[in-house]
From TrEMBL:
Pfam families referenced in this protein's UniProt entry, alphabetically: 1-cysPrx_C (PF10417), AhpC-TSA (PF00578)
Taxonomic source organism: Tuber borchii
Protein name, per record: Thioredoxin-like protein
Keyword field contains Oxidoreductase: yes
Nucleus as UniProt keyword: no
Organism domain of life: Eukaryota
């Protein structure tokens, strides 16, 4: 049975609540599971439902890209791990994938409550007993266990796994360089010099930066230095 050890209103910058849970790949303590990796914790309303099936397949197909970036995936819904296990076979068949990441069985919705994943507003998103399902939440959590992104999607709308990966790229790039990323940015595009960087600093950090407005300065990312063999 899942046990929760932390509650409260979660914001960007909050420490992700720790918990113990049963998953399709065994029992976990969440902070131990995170270890020194990034983690995408994402919930779906229910097993054996159409949109969720397509979403889990899409995340499974992109798992190797997340792994390359040091990111672990973990799903959650208020179903049992036995149900998840049966459903994974369908997901693999429908999406032509091999879903390996764990899915938490949160039948009692303890973790869902701790992470505010319960749908209180959408009266159509309830199970046969009228109990609210989990919504489509995504949490990006960094190795310090800090929540870096929270997304909430309605039951009717499947997410975009590539967008979650894009945000990971933006966050990891911003942690490494003093930059932010503009609308629709993808890796390889120019980035924005962080407002805290003066023009004098920018000349050293980003020799090719250009000023569009005093508050909007674009730059290519500095080339990675390779160590000589
Ligand atoms: C779906 O995954 O298709 C779904 C799940 C719960 C409510 C509505 C749609």
């Amino acid at each position: 049975m899942a046990t929760q050890t932390s509650t409260g209103s979660l914001r960007l910058g909050s420490i992700a609540p720790d918990f113990e849970a049963e998953t399709t790949t065994g029992s976990i303590k969440f902070h131990e599971f995170i270890g020194d990796k990034w983690v995408i914790l994402f919930s779906h309303p229910e097993d054996f439902t159409p949109v969720c099936t397509t979403e889990l397949g899409a995340f499974a197909k992109l798992e190797s890209e997340f792994t390359k970036r040091g990111v672990k995936l973990i799903g959650l819904s208020a179903n049992t791990i036995e149900s998840h296990g049966l459903w994974i076979k369908d997901i693999d068949e429908v999406s032509g994938c091999n879903l390996k990441f764990p899915i938490i069985g949160d039948k009692e919705r303890k973790i869902a409550h701790a992470y505010d994943m319960i749908d209180y507003q959408d009266t159509t998103n309830v199970d046969s007993k009228g109990i609210a399902f989990t919504i489509r939440s995504v949490f990006i959590i960094d190795p310090k266990k800090t929540i870096r992104l929270i997304m909430s999607y309605p039951a009717s709308t499947g997410r975009n796994a590539a967008e979650v990966l894009r945000v990971v790229d933006s966050l990891q790039t911003g942690d490494k360089h003093r930059i932010t990323t503009p609308i629709n940015w993808v890796p390889g595009d120019d980035v924005i010099v962080h407002p805290s960087v003066t023009n004098d600093e920018a000349k050293t950090l980003f020799p090719d930066f250009r000023i569009v407005k005093p508050y909007l300065r674009f730059t290519p990312l500095p080339k990675e230095k390779t160590t000589a063999a």
